[in-house]
Amino acid sequence: MSRTSVEVSIAPDVFRWLCGTSGWLAKDIAKRIEVPEEDVRSWYEGKTKPILPLTKVERLSEAFKRPLAAFLLSKPPEEIKLLPDFRKLPGVHGDFSKETHLAIRKAWRLQNVRSELMENLGSDVRITIKNHTIQDDPETVANNERVNLPVDLAQISTSTPTKLFQIWRDWFEQKNIMVLQLKMPVEDARGFSLTDIEPFVIVVNESDAPNAKIFTLFHEYGHILLNESAVCNRDSDVIDDTRIKKIEYWCNRFAGAFLVPEDFLKKELDIERLIQTTHYSRIVASIANKLKISKESALMRLLTLDYISPSEFRAERDKIRADAALLKEQIREKQSQSAKKSGPAISLDQKCLNEKGHRFVSLVLKNSDLGYITSRDALDYLDIKMKNLEKLRAES
User: Can you list the alpha helix ranges (DSSP code H) found in the chain?
Assistant: First the structure.
């Protein structure tokens, strides 16, 4: 019997679940498997049952990034509820993109894998942090969190955003908070956090600039302190939901207070004098350069401390974004021109380390060495090939 003659019957609830967690629209699915869009909508609404040739189900499996076995389930599995959508970029509406859906599912899976691997070794998956509410002063919370820091102001000012991000990443990993870098459209989401089970997870957008990743890292840590999972971006001033707006304001203020202490502004920059004598753009550039954060994050800090008004903030922010968009386009053109001359792409082992971090890689390797998981499991968890696994072993 040929593969095209084998038909697969998919439970309507399972089909709806697979579509809903993939980000694929009916029109895209119809085009992918070459069927009328009306048929796909009928399946999704449960009016008819999808019965498809195996070859078409394989196409969906590849598109949805789901195993074939998922299409044979009798009902959807118990999965973590959908993350609250705290995104706030102007023009961002509706469902998450396909890439963001995939990133969320990937983060959930790695969170569960890490939990199992830690339990295999008898490690405690719990994190020891004090939970807070939005009634707590974010400035005070940030000051209390700034203890036993892995880096001081002098080291920050002489470091690079990329190196500093790794330092902060290691600091969070020591707190039992997994930090992942996953690819999503920047205009869709800057990052998200998972707090349903321990160990908790912070995800930053791999495509973002290193200094922007640092602010996202601490913004998402704010969500963890509030025990609030969420997918986030920026611009809390354009959010309509009052509760979400308050939470995002709290997380932004916490991140700003942690990364840009008010004492630094007063003592190191003499902010009171600068505000009266220097243009905002120069002050923002100085803060961003010294503390290795984005200009927009520095500007937001001036706003939260009432050094500038909301209207002044928006005007300066728009200039920063316009300049950033122009620079991004110039970089894209240069990358496009150099792509033809560039050498081989980043290796899978290096991509794995960037995405999942050294601690997770070490955890997988140790479980493999002790026989808790197979080499095939290790390759699956790390998303690499055998030759890359040997490289990671040699480096660890």
Answer: 12-20, 26-33, 37-44, 54-64, 98-120, 138-145, 153-158, 161-174, 210-225, 242-259, 262-263, 271-277, 280-291, 295-304, 310-339, 348-356, 358-369, 375-382, 386-395
